């Protein structure tokens, strides 16, 4: 009887924990998008004011799918997610800014994406302008170009690196008449600053799985998330760490030429 009475509060507590929603989100590998291609008939990167290249290969930005910030996540989902390879459980505040409702969060992540697109264009044009003898068919003032990046229903800054690489590829390739991709399917993730610095983004293990699922051979990852990406990357997916846009370009050029390439 004593044991039974003592156990009652414990059982009640377990029932409460099991039934109450917890402050987590469940995330899954999301879609990947080739920034050199089209989505619903529209180019992801539209450049006016000059002829653009028609490269082979793909540059795929990667995403994760996460349950909404107001979703009720139960203990059973947290436990099953911990032991799963195809989903992850993360603290809600690590995915969504705290203290905001769903509409405010959507506006916030959309703003992050727009800021990332502007930074990507600035970083890409700076790199192309800095190449010696690069882009003989490009206008003298690249600032005259009209560059529009289109990607609906994706928020956050993590596509910045791939957007910047896409602009470089379409305008100038490797700077010597070849493609940055070398005809490969290149995937990756990373926020980007206007000066070309690449920042961490989160969700890397799920993004490596999305990249592998969609045929990528190479995954570009922010250097700070290199070890995490390497631990989770599927067999056969080559993970390359980068700290700047220039690092990413040089790594892809080295991959094509057979020179040493950074690794995690």
TrEMBL record:
Pfam families, A to Z: Lon_C (PF05362)
Gene Ontology terms describing biological process: proteolysis
Alphabetized InterPro entries for the sequence: Lon_proteolytic, Ribosomal_Su5_D2-typ_SF, Ribsml_uS5_D2-typ_fold_subgr
GO MF term (any one): ATP-dependent peptidase activity
Domain Lon proteolytic: 109-249
Source taxon at top rank: Bacteria
Name of the protein in question: Lon proteolytic domain-containing protein
Organism: Streptomyces alkaliphilus
């Amino acid at each position: 009887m004593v044991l039974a009475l003592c156990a009652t509060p414990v059982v009640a507590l377990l029932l409460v924990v099991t039934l109450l929603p917890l402050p987590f989100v469940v995330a899954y590998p999301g879609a990947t998008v080739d920034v050199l291609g089209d989505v619903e008939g529209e180019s992801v990167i539209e450049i006016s004011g000059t002829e653009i290249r028609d490269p082979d290969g793909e540059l795929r930005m990667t995403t994760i799918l996460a349950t909404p910030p107001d979703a009720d996540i139960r203990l059973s989902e947290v436990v099953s997610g911990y032991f799963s390879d195809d989903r992850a459980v993360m603290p809600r505040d690590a995915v969504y800014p705290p203290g905001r409702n769903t509409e405010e969060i959507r506006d916030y992540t959309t703003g992050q994406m727009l800021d990332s697109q502007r930074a990507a264009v600035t970083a890409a044009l700076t790199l192309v302008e800095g190449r010696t003898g690069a882009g003989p068919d490009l206008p003298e003032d690249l600032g005259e170009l009209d560059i529009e990046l289109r990607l609906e229903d994706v928020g956050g800054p993590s596509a910045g690196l791939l957007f910047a690489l896409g602009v470089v590829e379409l305008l100038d390739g490797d700077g010597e008449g070849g493609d940055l991709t070398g005809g490969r399917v290149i995937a990756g993730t990373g926020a980007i600053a206007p000066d070309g610095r690449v920042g961490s983004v989160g969700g890397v293990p799920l993004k490596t799985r999305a990249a592998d699922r969609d045929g990528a051979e190479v995954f570009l990852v922010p250097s700070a998330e290199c070890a995490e990406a390497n631990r989770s990357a599927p067999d056969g997916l080559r993970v390359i760490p980068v700290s700047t846009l220039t690092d990413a370009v040089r790594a892809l050029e080295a991959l094509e030429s057979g020179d040493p390439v950074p690794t995690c």
